Amino acid sequence: MRVVCVGGGPAGLYFAILMKRQDPAHDVTVYERDAAGSTYGWGVTYWDGLLDTLRACDPESAESIRAGSVCWRGGTAHVGDRTTVHDGDRGFGISRHRLLEILARRAAALGVRVEFEREWSPEDPLPDADLVVAGDGVHSALRERFAGHFRPTAVGGRNTFVWLGTTKRFDTFTFSFVETAHGWIWCYAYGFGADRSTFIVECSPETHRGLGLDSANEGEALELLAALFAKPLDGHRLIGRAEADGRTRWQTFRTLTNERWHRGNLVLLGDAAHTTHYSIGAGTTLAIEDAVELAAAVLREPTTEAALRGYEQRRKSALLAAQSAARLSAQWYENLPRYLRLPPSQMFALLGQRHSPLLPHVPPQLYYYLDRTAGRLPAMRGCKRWLGSRLARAAQKQRGKQRASA
User: Fold this and answer.
1) CA-to-CA distance for 199 and 179, rounded, in angstroms?
2) How far apart are the C-alpha atoms of 5 and 8, rounded to whole Å?
3) Are 42 and 198 in contact (CB under 8 A)?
4) Partners of 82 in the beta sheet?
5) What is the mean pLDDT of residues 109-125?
6) How, if at all, do strands 70-79 and 173-180 pair?
7) What pLDDT, in 10s, does the model give residues 20-70?
8) What is the pLDDT of residues 261-275, one digit of tens each?
9) What burial letters (b/e) apply to 178-208, b meaning 16+ CB within 10 Å?
10) Contact 313, 39 (CB under 8 A)
């Protein structure tokens, strides 16, 4: 096959690797719009499950990724002057730059052509190939060219956020919640290098405006945020990436879905097909899992059409749980004051339960005690699961009606 991947992110590069491993005779090219080594981003996070998948598919790149990652375990939450620590599963962080470097080098070693500074616009003809993979991100030019067919839907979140870095290495997944005169502001932080961590700050739009972050330049914003989060930063500095006007790039998250994922020999991959809120830390994992399933479908099915149809069906089904968890997680943070008056241990317990469809409908402290009771009584666990599943189905049906009316 002649395969062209438009977009040199983790999903596109990994799919190219898998195709060459399946058959070295495949002619595979990856086009990336940016220059080599110029990726934007701090660290990405993943868990043992992704490592298992990577090792099964390509042990060489898996070991390089593991060697380039740092490991953290459990979580820490600072709520005002109170701190609670939770033991949990281990996670990993790796710089986005390092991850892409590993994958690009591995792809090239297998015979994939990786061409940088090659951008596709919506007006350009499709690449001449048996299979064209649109892995060019949430703003995919190839998807937008055929938007009438793919029917993308983007739903904006309420809160505003910014991705930053810091020179502090966090050894646990760390949260810090700070109350200001204008409302709560909080961060998520995790290590990805010997002296680097990702540091995401989020708040409501009212808090964002009240603190003056909507008009501050980068230096002013970083100084203010460093003062607000002095406790977890422990004297370390924040690192930003200013826009052309000198301001920090605050955004609202947009959850993207597509009604269809393929058209002829063109198929969507990763963020071009779907996004999930960053608070569940699954974006890179889900994108790579897309690549794994697409490569398996191409190998398994007798025709390209059958492969793309099977890939779309399987991945849409597999994503349902993650998409539900991401929606509920985003809503938890949008309703944060509801939970922050609890004792820190209870708040942190509900932070871990934020994916539950039942939680938004039950007073937080009552939910906490119900959950603890359910842990001891099998009948209560069954009742909790039954209520949660009914609420989840009702919410899914409502979203379906909203999409149909749109």
Assistant:
1) 18
2) 7
3) yes
4) 79
5) 90
6) parallel
7) 999 999 999 999 998 887 777 799 999 999 999 999 999 999 999 999 999
8) 999 999 999 999 999
9) beeebbbbbbbbbbbbeebbbbbbbbbeebb
10) no
